[in-house]
Amino acid sequence: MPPGRKRAEEPPAKKRATAAAKPPAGRAPSKRAARGYHHGDLRRALVDAGLALLEESGVDAVRVREAARRVGVSPAAPFRHFPSREDFLREVALAGIERFELASAAEVAAATSPLLRFRALGLASVRFALEHPALFELLNGPAFRGDPEGASALLAAQDEARARLRRMLEEAREHGELRPTDPIVTEVAGRAMAYGLARMFLDGHLPREGAMDLTEAVLDVLGEGLAQAPPGGATPPRSG
C-alpha cells in the first residue's frame, strides 16, 4: 500500500462472505456443527454404543438408530456398515467375545498348569456371565443359529474359543494331568458345567450370594474326576 493512502473498504463480496460466516444475531451456532464428527472409526464407535445399550437395557434395546443417535451421526449413516439390525447384533456379539477374552486372559495366564488353566477359564466364564448378563444372553441366544452364512464371523470366533479350550486339555493330557478320557466328552463336560452354573445363577435357581465360592467348589469336583491320580493312588491335590 503506498504511503499516506488509507486501506480501502473491503469489497462488497468479501463483506458478504464474512457476514455469512457469522451466525445471525441472537442465534447460537448449531451444536452439531460445532461438535462435528471426530470418530476415527465409525464402525467401532457404533459397536461400542451398541454394547452400552446392551449393558444398560438388554438385547431388545440394541437398535442401530439409537446407536447412531448416541454417536452423533445421521440415522442413515450406520447402514453403510450394518445393512440390518441382525448384522449389527452380530458385530456387538463379536465385540462381546473380545471383551470376555480380555477379561479372562490374566486369570487364565496366572494358572500354573494346563488343567488349572481349564479351571480358571470356567471360573472366568461364570464370573463374566454374572457381571454381564445381557451379553451372556446375546452370546447364547438363538439369533445367530438360523443364518450360519450371515453369522460366519461370529461362529468362527466361537469355534476358535472352543479350539483354545481343546488345546488346554491336550496340554493337560500331554503333561499327564488327565485320565484317559474322550477329549470331546471332557470339553463338553467343562463347557456344560460353566454354562449350566451361569444359567442357574442368572435364572434364580441358585442364589447369587456366594456364587463364585460355589462355582470353585463345583469345578474342583469336576477337576478331581478328570485328574490323573498321582503314583500310589493318592487323591490329586485340589487347586488353590
Describe this structure in words.
α3 crosses α4, α6 runs parallel beside α9 and α8 packs across α9. The radius of gyration is 28 Å and the shape is elongated. The protein starts with 11 loop residues before the first helix and ends in a 14-residue tail after the last helix. Helix content is 62%, strand content 0%. By secondary structure, it is mainly α.
Structural class: mainly alpha
Let me know the number of strands. Answer: 0
Strand content range: under 5%
Main sheet, how many strands, which sense, barrel? Answer: none
Tally of individual helices: 10
Mean pLDDT value: 81
SSE string: HHHHHHHHHH
Report helical residue fraction: 55-70%
User: Low-confidence segments, ≥5 residues, pLDDT <50?
Assistant: 1-37, 233-237
Radius of gyration: 28 Å
Descriptive terms for the model:
10 helices, 62% helix, mainly alpha, single chain, 240 residues, disordered N terminus
Short description:
This protein has 240 residues and is mainly alpha-helical. The chain is 62% helix and 0% strand. It has ten helices and no strands.
Structural topology:
Layout (H helix, E strand, L loop, with lengths): L11 H10 L9 H5 L6 H16 L6 H8 L13 H26 L3 H18 L1 H8 L11 H23 L8 H20 L8 H16 L14
Helix pairs in contact: 3-4, 3-5, 5-6, 5-8, 6-7, 6-8, 6-9, 6-10, 8-9, 9-10
